[in-house]
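User: I'm new to structure prediction. If I give you an amino acid sequence, what do you actually give back? Let's try with this one:
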Amino acid sequence: MSTSAEAVLEDVAGRLRSRGERMTRQRRAVLGALARSSGHLTAEEVCSAVAEADPGVHRASVYRTLEAMSQLGVVQHVHVGHGGTTYHLVSGRSPHLHVQCRTCGAVFDAPSGLLDDAARELLRLHGFVLDPGHIALSGACARCASALR
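Assistant: Good question. You get back a string of structure tokens that encode the predicted 3D arrangement of the chain. For your 149 residues, that looks like this:
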């Protein structure tokens, strides 16, 4: 495992200890799978990666761990496409926005403050509190957009 992955595991272990919880083998396997990936993985992809690294970890443990790590704030889940959900490590930064190409399906990170003006306006007009990091914005990536021209 890379140094940065080990640093993530140590950070999460510290957070868990401060809450009276432990870094279990299952949690280590899930976090390791996410740390080895540079992308946004579906739960099934996480399950496959975990099964390769530690076949003894049950699928249900992977799902529970993804949910627990999302609540802890170290994993961000994002709804993409037609109801699909992807996961990735927040890696010491705050949750951020995502955009997804509606043609090729690629998911890209976007700055967290990108929709701040829109969020303020929705709050002012409707009292609506926007959660922009929860779902990917749809559009066309540069490659797909140029093919459409």
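You can read the tokens as a compact description of the fold. Here is one thing that stands out. The beta strands are 41-42, 75-80, 84-89, 97-101, 107-110, 137-139.
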